[in-house]
Write a structure and sequence with these properties.
By secondary structure, the chain is of the alpha/beta class. It has four helices and seven strands. The strands form two sheets. It has a five-stranded parallel beta sheet, with helices on both faces. It has a two-stranded antiparallel ribbon with strand order 4-5. Helix 2 runs parallel beside helix 3.
């Protein structure tokens, strides 16, 4: 997956890491409607890690806890190391998630996009 051009550098760049196409489209539409630039979606841990290897690739991440039956834990660890804020989306209960994922705001699927937008705005300190 190649980096996407930054057509609107003034818009916060959100990397979308989600393996379910319909959910990714729903989230992407909501983010774009609220003034965010969406990068991705990345559907695998490998794709997400590739994007994160690009310096300053994004301002925040929407991270699905499980990508094609693979834990997104390596992505969360990389985000914590890079200091990139993120929101976790999941179909799992809180007790089923690794501790590194629970340091971020967690939204149950189906995702309430208003809550997601609110979390991202708080994480990025924008109105």
């Amino acid at each position: 997956m190649s980096p996407q051009p930054q057509n609107h550098p003034s818009k916060p760049r959100i990397l979308l890491v989600e393996d379910e196409v319909l959910i990714a489209l729903l989230i992407e539409d909501a983010l774009e409607a609220h003034g965010f630039q969406v990068l991705g979606p990345c559907q695998t841990v490998l794709q997400a890690m590739s994007q994160l290897s690009i310096p300053d690739c994004c301002d925040a991440v929407v991270l699905d806890a499980s990508l094609r039956n693979e834990s997104a834990l390596p992505v969360a660890r990389a985000l914590l190391e890079l200091g990139v804020p993120f929101v976790v989306t999941t179909g799992y209960s809180l007790s089923q998630l690794p501790a590194e994922l629970t340091v971020a705001p967690i939204l149950a699927k189906p995702v309430n996009t208003k809550e997601l937008i609110g979390h991202l705005r708080r994480l990025l300190s924008i109105g």
